[in-house]
Each structure stands twice: as C-alpha cells, then as structure tokens.
Design brief:
The protein has about 375 residues and is an alpha/beta fold. The protein has 15 helices and 13 strands. The protein folds into two domains: about 130 residues, Aspartate Aminotransferase, domain 1; about 220 residues, 3-Layer(aba) Sandwich (Aspartate Aminotransferase, domain 2), CATH 3.40.640.10. Helices cover about 45% and strands about 15% of the residues.
Length: about 375
C-alpha cells in the first residue's frame, strides 16, 4: 500500500534523485565541508549561552530580525540603493530564487525559464532548478577551471536564462575567475534579460569581492544580486545566508520567503557574532595563513597536483582518488571525493583547510595514501 502511494503521489523526477549525503564524521579530522575549524573562545561561548537562554522561545521571531539585516548591511558595506534579504542558509535563498523566477512559458517559443551556471559548481544551483521543474544548463569550465567566456556568452545568447549563477570563488575549484570575463558575462546576461546571482559564500578567505564592480558601476548591475553566508564566516551550525541587491528586485523575491524563516536563536547568534566580528576576522586570517602553508606542502608532494585557492578549501588531483580517499579515512581524516561530480574533476579530492594540527595530520595521512 505504501509503495503504491509513493508511486502515485511522489514526483517521478524526485524518486530518481538522491538526497544530499552527509558523511559520518564521528572520531574523524573533519575536512570535508569547508567549515571554520575554530570554535568561539570559552568566555564568548559562555556569554552567548546566557544570551540565548534569556530568549522568549514561546514567541515568533520579532523585529529583532531587522536589527540583523541592518548589522549585516553595515558589515558587508552594502551599496546605496540596495536592500538585504535573509535565508535559512544560502540554500534556501537559491530555492526561493528558482520559485520566484518560475514564470509561465514563453507564448511564442513555448520555452520555460531555465537556470544556467558554470560546471563544476555548487550542486544546489542545478538541484533548485530540478525541484522547481526548471531546466538547467551547465557550461563547462576550461581544463584549468577558468571561466570559458566564449562558451558562457554563447549559452546565454541561445538560452536566455532566467538566472545565471556565478560563484566567486567557485566551489569545488576554489578559484576566482578573471574579473573582465565576469563583467562581460554579467553584461551579456543583462542584455537578454537574465538575473545574475554572484555567490560569495567564501568571501572571508578571498582576495577580491565583486561588490567593488557593483559599487563602481551600479547602473550596469541593476540585474545583479550578491549572495553570502555566515556558514564560512564561522557559523555553519546557525544556518544564516543573506542576499543583497536593488531594493525593487529584493522586494519581489522576498515575497516568496516563508514567514519567520529565521529563528530567534539563529538571528541572536548572528548578531552576537557580528558584535565580535574581530574574533572571526582573526580566525579567517589564520585559515588563510594555514592555506598558504598547506598549498606549499601539497604542491611539493609527489603524485599530487594542487590548484591555487581563494577559499578555505584546496582542490587536488591524485593518481587514484578513491584509493587516496579510503586511505585518508582509514587514517582518521575525512575529505570530500569529488572525482565523480564532473569529468573535469577526474581523480580530484577537495580538502578543507583546518587548524595547524589538522593540516599536519592531513599531510601525513595524504603522503601515506597517494
């Protein structure tokens, strides 16, 4: 009876999907999910606990959430004329964008709106399209993971997508794309009426931000939204994403946001973190220093190719990704095997930058596992 119910009532495309998998990390050095490895100092952890303990959990979230919007706008130095929208992580914002842009099919061509992004990239861009019943077009990067400007421009002209996603830096390749190429792709999307979403999830570790281009030419970016998250900032467990863009555009997307999507616990944690942002800035600086050390060691290691990174992860290629992944896991180090995500990622592993001790353990285990 249950099988019959599932066959009748669950969408066929959903039944063919796989749920997002989370690896069991119990007892492991956890370097698979690009988390900030540093916890709050003990005194701040205690202060936060007292603050959360005083909240009225019997009440729905109140106007305090607007205090967080203002604090985030100030922290990000949001450009004039823009507004900010909050999500339960960037994942929710990506889903809401697909929902908001799912307009009726073109009466002339019969085409439904679709979403376009470079590949390999963040899996939620394609998943949000699939769950909303939209087509997804992936444009492969070059062999060295650069943005293929010619292919992107051609795909935008042909497909005229509803949304173009550009991750800056990209996941899982961890690189920043050429700024000139980015600006030309953004402009081309604007000419065909596409919305562009710049995803800066890894901004705390990046040497550049696309906000500089938006500030320099706001009129050329009226179709652009910029998305960030506090997950990489150091609050992965809090689930807080935010998106900035022209007020009129944010106002329309915000209409599909569920009421009370940010809990009182989430917004109070985020406000507390922003009040102590210097602590998180110091952690990001340490992660960047560890990244430089890790890259130097990886690039000198026989059998390993490591690409430069502007994020808190490093992409490496080894002779046998599954063998190396299994060897690392057997030695208590958990990373992400991305070798089957896309042909360009053949034999690749993604390594999160950890603490000095974690990185030392990673390098030792990797040397024995390659």
């Amino acid at each position: 009876m249950l099988d019959a119910l599932i066959q009748r009532r669950i969408r066929q495309d959903v039944k063919s999907m796989h749920a997002y998998a989370i690896q069991d990390s119990a007892g492991m050095v956890k370097l698979d999910a690009m988390e900030n490895p540093h916890r709050l100092p003990a005194e701040l952890q205690e202060a936060l606990g007292k603050r959360l303990g005083a909240l009225a959990l019997n009440r729905y979230p109140d106007g305090r959430v607007n205090d967080l919007r203002k604090a985030l706008a100030a922290y990000a130095q949001m450009p004039d004329g823009c507004d900010i929208m909050l999500g339960n992580g960037s994942d929710e914002l990506i889903s809401l964008l697909a929902m908001a842009c799912d307009v009726a099919a073109d009466p002339v061509t019969g085409k439904k709106p679709m979403i376009l992004a470079p590949l390999p990239g963040f899996v939620m861009y394609a998943m949000s399209a699939a769950l909303q019943g939209l087509d997804f077009v992936g444009v492969p990067l070059t062999a060295d993971f650069a943005l293929d400007e010619t292919a992107m421009l051609a795909a935008i002209a042909q497909s005229q997508p509803a949304i173009v996603y550009l991750a800056y830096p990209n996941n899982p390749t961890a690189n920043l794309w050429d700024r000139g190429a980015m600006e030309r792709v953004v402009a081309a999307a604007g000419r065909v009426g596409s919305l562009v979403v710049i995803d800066e999830a890894y901004q705390p570790f990046s040497s550049r931000t696309y906000l500089d281009a938006i500030r320099a030419q706001p009129e050329a970016h009226a179709h652009v939204l910029l998305m960030r998250t506090l997950s990489k900032f150091g609050l992965a467990g809090v689930r807080l994403g935010y998106m900035m863009g022209p007020k009129a555009l944010i106002a329309e997307v915000d209409k599909v946001r569920p009421p009370y999507n940010i809990s009182v616990l989430n917004y109070e944690c985020a406000l507390f973190a922003l009040e102590h942002q210097e602590v998180f800035a110091a952690q990001a600086l340490e992660i960047r220093a560890q990244r430089a050390m890790l890259l130097e060691a990886l690039q000198a290691m026989a059998g390993v190719k490591a690409w430069d990174s502007d994020a808190n992860m490093v992409l490496v290629r080894v002779p046998d990704a599954q063998k190396t992944f299994d060897g690392l896991k057997a030695r208590g180090v958990l990373v992400k095997n991305v070798s089957k995500m896309h042909p360009l990622l053949a034999q690749c592993l993604r390594l999160t930058v950890g603490t000095a001790d974690e990185n030392t353990r990673l390098l030792g285990a990797l040397q024995e596992s390659v």
